Please model this.
Amino acid sequence: MSLLTYEEVRERAADILEAIGSGFMPPWHADAPHGTFLNDRRLSVADKQTITKWADAGAPRGDANDMPPMPMYSNSWTIGTPDVVVAMPTEYDVPAKGVIEYQYFEVPTNFTEDKWVRAIEILPGAREVVHHVLVFASQPERTPPPTAAAGDSPRGPLVLRRDDHAIPEPPPTTNDKKEDERGVSALIGTTAPGTNVLTFPEGTALRIPAGSVLTFQMHYTAKGHAMKDRTSVGMIFAKGRPDQEIRADQFFNGSFTIPAGAADYVVPSEVGFRESVRIWGLFPHTHLRGKRWEYRLVQPDGRSEVILSVPNYDFNWQTYYMFAKPLAVPPGARIEATAWYDNSALKSTNPNPKAEVRWGDQTWEEMQYTGFLYTVDSRKLSSGAKK
Model:
């Protein structure tokens, strides 16, 4: 529905009241007190009371002099004008039907120096058929960057994965190259249905090394008519070198089988840390059968606490939950992630409740995947230095 004019809003007053009363709108699915997350979209109690009184009073117009000007919405960048835009080299022809395997496109940045990014946004060229995009940065020489410490691994310098849940080998595609053939790479950007743009917390920034090549991992879904897509990534640079380098990583469980008809099937995963880190954000991701998530921080002595609960996961609103205060994680601690799935006929979005479900790229398959943003306590940088 459109809510741009008073007349449009007044006609929907009863619907608005019902939506905010049930918690259906604004869309927010984490169960935590206000103030826990920076990007919490929920209305305050006071805001809800204001809307309720207005609707109960017959939705009066109010003083026309208080009406703000009509907002102008851009069809392009929500982060503002990017300092740099990197686009897929050519358009990709998305067919009208059929299964489309993941497509990969490599684009050089031509950066002559390291760049510190404070905001990043992925802009699909044909949003209707773009299911998700992951953008990775790698260096052609395929060696760790000079600032990496001894013992760093290419995919998470201070992250020790405690599980060993392998993802099944995908079928070959026309332009697919295995990740380990692409060199040392780091995840720098993600977009999926409902995903919020990433603006990194004050004092942090994402480093993209000089000479990096960006790889677009594109997941397309046919929608019944052929389309052309040329997705771009836009970046806004920090004014200078940040206090801390923010890093993006992921953990997952790819070795599950959800039985046909199972209404509450559990799939766990976990990640452990061998140095002190700060967790800034968590991104839970399943497909159409996902129903809820819970994340626990388990201390080295076994004590644990819930750090994120998503009791009503919605595939159409995939959110990077950004903590208002980063979580301090000591050496030897771990994060346990648990996802629940409904593969029964009661799940309205279930593509086929009679089928066993395993890890797969397509939406009628499933994933148990978590992205996360973190900084390393021992890797503080000199503030105010040149890029």
